[in-house]
Amino acid sequence: MALNKVQTERLSKFSKEGLLDYIDLVQRNFWNLQNNWMMYMNNEYGQEAAVKGDSHCFGANSRVQVYRLRKMFDLKDDVQALEDAMILSTIWVNCDYDMWRPAENKLRLKVTKCYQQVRRLEDGVGELACKQAGIDVCRIAAEVVNPKFEAKCIVCPPDEHPDDVWCEWEWELKK
């Protein structure tokens, strides 16, 4: 367990709402670290190197997260399991998104607000070309649930996209 004895004792006294607030804070701290790492890599080594590192790290991270979530929550190998893993992981907590099933064997996710991209635009550094990282994250996470899943990018920067859609992904469970 990553929590030490002192943390466990303190957290066990939190209310349900307090624990949810704490989880939210931990996830925001994770994304703060990631955003700072990306900005440093981008400034120091260029966007191509930053994206390559992001793709590698986030692919590996999604593999571990989904594996642990499957084990913790006894998730199966179906579309519901993939949906649960996507919702419970930190993969999508840095954005607002819609998720739905266009068919029994498909899951779709559309990011309507990406806080990292919005922040980049506010800082005047432009959009991050995160498509390859997104492809790796979506493909690897789905493979952990079931190797028969295929992940597809509908749109993601550097692609042109509508103002209200940053990226969109679809997973299909092949028979």
Give the tags:
175 residues, alpha+beta, Muramoyl-pentapeptide Carboxypeptidase, domain 2, four-stranded antiparallel β-sheet, globular
Describe the fold and architecture.
With about 180 residues, the protein is α+β, with helices and mostly antiparallel strands. The protein has one domain: Muramoyl-pentapeptide Carboxypeptidase, domain 2 (2-Layer Sandwich). It has six helices and four strands; from the N terminus they run ααααββααββ. The protein has helices at about 5-10, 15-45, 45-75, 80-90, 115-120, 130-145; strands at about 95-100, 105-115, 150-155, 165-175. A four-stranded antiparallel β-sheet has the order 1-2-4-3. α2 runs antiparallel to α3. The N and C termini lie far apart (about 35 Å).
Q: What's this, in brief?
A:
With 175 residues, the protein is α+β, with helices and mostly antiparallel strands.
Q: How would you characterize the largest beta sheet?
A: 4 strands, antiparallel
What is the helix fraction of residues, given as a range?
55-70%
Rg to the nearest angstrom? Answer: 17 Å
Task: Please tell me the overall pLDDT.
Answer: 94
Shape: globular
Q: Into how many domains do the coordinates divide?
A: 1
In angstroms, what separates the terminal alpha carbons? 37 Å
Strand content: 15-25%
> Number of DSSP strands?
4
Q: From the 3D structure, determine the CATH topology.
A: Muramoyl-pentapeptide Carboxypeptidase, domain 2
- Count every helix, treating DSSP H or I runs of 4 or more residues as helices: 6
CATH class descriptor name: Alpha Beta
Please state how the strands of the largest beta sheet are arranged side by side: 1-2-4-3
Along the chain, the helix and strand elements come as HHHHEEHHEE
Q: What's the CATH architecture?
A: 2-Layer Sandwich
What class, by secondary structure content?
Answer: alpha+beta
Low-confidence stretches: none
